[in-house]
Specification:
The complex is a heterodimer.
Chain A (H helix, E strand, L loop, with lengths): L4 H22 L12 H7 L1 E6 L3 H15 L2 E6 L2 H14 L6 E4 L2 H9 L3 E2 L21 E13 H4 L19 E4 L7 H11 L1 H8 L4 E3 L2 H9 L5 E6 H9 L4 E4 L5 E11 L5 H12 L1 H9 L23 E3 L2 H19 L6
Parallel strand pairs in A: 1-2, 1-3, 6-7, 6-8, 10-11
Antiparallel strand pairs in A: 3-10, 4-10, 5-8, 5-9, 5-10
Chain B lengths: L2 H9 L4 H28 L9 H8 L1 H34 L5 H13 L2 H12 L5 H10 L11 H25 L3 H9 L4 H30 L1 H6 L9 H10 L5 H27 L21 H28 L16 H9 L1 H34 L5 H9 L6 H12 L10 H26 L2 H9 L4 H29 L5 H4 L7 H10 L3 H36 L1
Helix pairs in contact in B: 2-13, 2-16, 2-18, 3-13, 4-5, 4-8, 4-10, 4-14, 5-8, 5-14, 6-8, 6-14, 8-10, 9-10, 10-13, 12-13, 13-18, 14-24, 15-16, 15-24, 16-17, 16-19, 16-21, 16-23, 18-19, 19-21, 20-21, 21-24, 23-24
The chains are: A alpha/beta, B mainly alpha.
Chain lengths: 350, 569
Amino acid sequence: MRITRRFTIITATAWSANAAIARAAGAETGPENTAQIDIARAKAEGRVVIYTSLDTQLVDTIIAPFRERYGIEVTYFRAGSAEVTGKVLAEADAGRSQADMVDASDLAALLLMKERGLLRPFESAARALLPASQRDPDSTWIVDRLTQGVLQYNVAEFGAAPPQHWADLGRAGMAGRVSFWSASSGDGAPRIITLAQHLGWDVVKSIARTKPLRTVSPQTMAQIIERRERGVGLLQNDNVAWRSKLQGKGTDFLFPSEGVPSEFGACGLLKTSTRPHAAALFHEWWMSAEGQAVLSKGGKYSPRTDVAPPENSLPITKMKLLEQDYTTYKRDRAKILDQMADVFGGEWGN
Amino acid sequence: MGQLIAGSLRGQRFGPQNLVLGLAILVLLVLVAYPMLWLILGAFGVPQDLTLDNFQRAFTRAQNYSALANTLQLGFGTGLLSMAFGVSLAWAVARSDMPGRQIIHLLVALSYITPPYLTALAYIILLGPDAGLINRLLRDVFGFSLGPLNIFSMNGVIFVISIHVFAFTYFLTHSALKSIDASLEESAQMLGARRWQTTLRINLPLVAPAITGGVLLSVIDSLALFGPQAIIGMPAQIVFLPTRIYATISSYPPRWGEASALSLVLVAMTVIGLGLQRFFLERRSYVTIGGKGVRSQTIRLGGWRWALLAVCALVVAMSAAAPIGVLTLTAFSKDWIAPLSLSNLTLAHFGTALFSDQVAARGIYNSFRLAAGAAFVAMAVGASIAYLDLRTNLRGRNVLDYLAMLPLGLPGTVMAVGVLLAFIRLPIGVYGTIWILLIAYSARFIPLATRSVSATLRQIDASLEEAGRITGSSWLQSMRRIVVPMARPGLLVAFLLVFIPAFSELSATILLYTGGTETIAIAIYRLNDLGQIEVVCALAVFTIAVVLALSAMVHFLSRDRTAPSEGVG
């Protein structure tokens, strides 16, 4: 058979158009609330892809019973919040979205995805159990965990007199003893800016002057404090500090009386998902009392009022929380990351 | 030689050989040229725009300047240290009567095959400023209030990268020193020259091109090593170009144009380095007097040989023994912070790494299949390019050869940016699958396969193939019955030479993987982020064991391959 150039061009064009139509057709509307989820269709869809910033051990624990119950495979991409968000946006820009559901510990990221029209409204059964500030009025996102930035310290280093306030970390004697975390994509910035907004930049700048050791994640910061590379950690994830203490790694943590930043992690369903029923089913499992209890067992606070706080932990209502302004953070993120680079140096993804 | 083959290739316009070779060219264009084209287009804002803004941003932002300055400083530092370590060890092993030369030689090879991001992890355990094992020891012994050594610094990054890349300088210098005929030195000495004069006026000029070439290769490699730059540079708050490119894309919204423009800066740096390296090594052609039958002079050091052994042992202890030792120790420890004792030993972390942890188990499986796939593709393409270059008169074959060598000048991060830009928009299902990793790996390691197969083909006389053709064999038959069987050991070496680096590849993978396509390097990198250091070390030990076993196989096969020709020659 003689293959002409015209034949090749026509075939390639038809194939590309066909693929594009198939993709568009695949991204169907999907269920709008829990009642509309068709479990048989979800099972037929067979798979869910989630992009998440949650610790893999927790993700694996949540996935296992879901997979067993429904026989639906769950594949996940795990990275820091900013990286997860960057991947969702890049794929959307290229028209090659892969994820069915996204979860990030930075609500501003979900707000940006909503603004770009990437999220699909879905009314979760859990909505009624969450305060209004923790769910989108348009139902495109819902808060799935609360993380508080606490002060973690090495017990052997400080004994019975650990630093009690954030400002204590900026004292001259703390030079070379403080650690903080942020990935190169700027994941640690939201809680630092919250601290600066509530307590003033002077506190943050004085801490930066002690030359704190930067780590890429809360978990690596815990390691640094456990082995006494540094004595105290700034704005540690409460669940990581809780686990380190529980495992007897020689650390403890406290909630400074002036308040701790509380970070809303949130999840949402992608509009482009080609497996809308399986994705919605998993979303509801993730947000169910059972799914959220897994998070609680792992030290995370659930936004659901019917899920108990982590074992031996303060109820969230007893804490003084420093609230984050997510809308402002989303709008001014580039400027804020520049500020972080100015104050702390290093890479912030700006 | 080869005219008959060349002629027959020209004569048969649509023969199977043209199909095979045409396919190889097509694969090379898709794997290498197409992503590079997109890298350039991306820097100009395509497809959204056509603009110079990305270059303006790349060259005017303070963060980018700082990354560029740090990268240059890193290159300068590793160049100096590589020269210090590489030349002194090469001289000791090649020319002196120092005891244990063979072991030192093997340990240098071991430091090179150990993935540098694992060395970086090991040195955080060893040289963490306060709690690092060596710093603790120094504090205990000398009473320092704080650890005197700080890995989280520019010097720390330079040190960790140097103890990996100095192997380039070592091997090239070692080979050059071995090829100097003793008669030259003896002549000089007979004419009254002293030992130091012989070294300065005879030896040094002869090996200088090799030293320069090796140092430049070390510098080029150091610029591209994402792992240590990220693992140590990040806590040290030092940004390099590869980590800057990564952060530019992994933050949100991702800035592809700026990443592409920065990538081109990095490419320019490595291409200049490679050009210089080639220039210096080509000058070596007048150095090798003999080739075969060269007799090198061994210098007797008397009591000093023990002092020299101590220096060499210290270097290889730092580059191979200490990092691998501490990773192994941590992998077998229940609690890596607790002191070493029998009750603190466990195999549990290997169980987690190899079987329980889903990402790690998937990573091991993916790394094996990706490395095998990339090795096969690179070997097939490399063999075709080498065949075209050596056995045909095809017009433009030099261009193909250069194209096949192009990835040598492309750091993994840069290659990944090009591959992402090129394939993310294609309607075919490559993005988000294991295929995109296979493309990047194959493209990255085609130069290794091409050079390796080229060396093999040079050893097989074209007249053998011609004889087959004269007696009536078709091209395919002569390939199947003559060339491939004779080249099989060499092809296997080429396969393994690609498999080894592909198995532990990180620089490109970090930008290209997704859920389900994690590799062993990603499992190590991500689990380290999640603080699971013992599991990370178990994976590291497994990786090093695989790489070591395969390297031993390459060594065995290469020796096997060269032995008969040496006998004949």
